[in-house]
Write a structure and sequence with these properties.
single chain, alpha/beta, Rossmann fold
Amino acid sequence: MTDRWPELCVAMATRHGVSADGFDALAPPIAVFDWDDTCIHGDISHEALELLEHEDPQGRVAHYRAACEADLYGAYRELVHTLVAGRTHDEVRDLAERALARGRERGTLALRPRMHHLVSTLQAQGWWVRVVTASPAPLVQPLARRYGIPPEHVLGIRSAEARGRYLPELIEPVPIGPGKVDTLLAHTHRPPMFTTGDSWSDHPLMDKSRYVLLHHRGDAALLREARQRGWWIAGEDA
């Protein structure tokens, strides 16, 4: 693993920050952060599903795992409906807070101070920091606030709404795989300079970035590409 990644990222932030020649405050460099298993240890959507099943056992977790074997992306879209559809924004926010609390107690979720520090450093240097995540936006937003990231900068999966409640209908583009690039460009109209993520779902954004930090979680092929392309690499304890 690249033990020096924190200092390398800080140097990058400064090199292209507010004091850099040609810095444009109206079009600053963009940093993209995946959320689950990147900004935090664990997955807030999975944790929320576990919580719902704990409170009201219906076989949700087993059904989701079986669906993933058949169609991973399709299963994840269905997961979003399970977590969000029929609920208000405040109810989803409450679900996120309860899932975070339970995950911390179980040791399956944890905030990552070094990622929080990196976000703060980039923001102080004038970068645009955006979270692009395959988790529902309203589920991630209350957690991202802890890192100083406002809700409108969390580009997660969005569900249509009617009468104050979310519907089982996703709004395009959906930020999964190539959809992460589409989601970012629809928001910023420019590609990122820096991306950090942990999986092939983040790869389309990594591929468009000048700087990349991979959070390695055991994918040998992704690790091999990271080494070949000179990406920075962080271990699970990052």
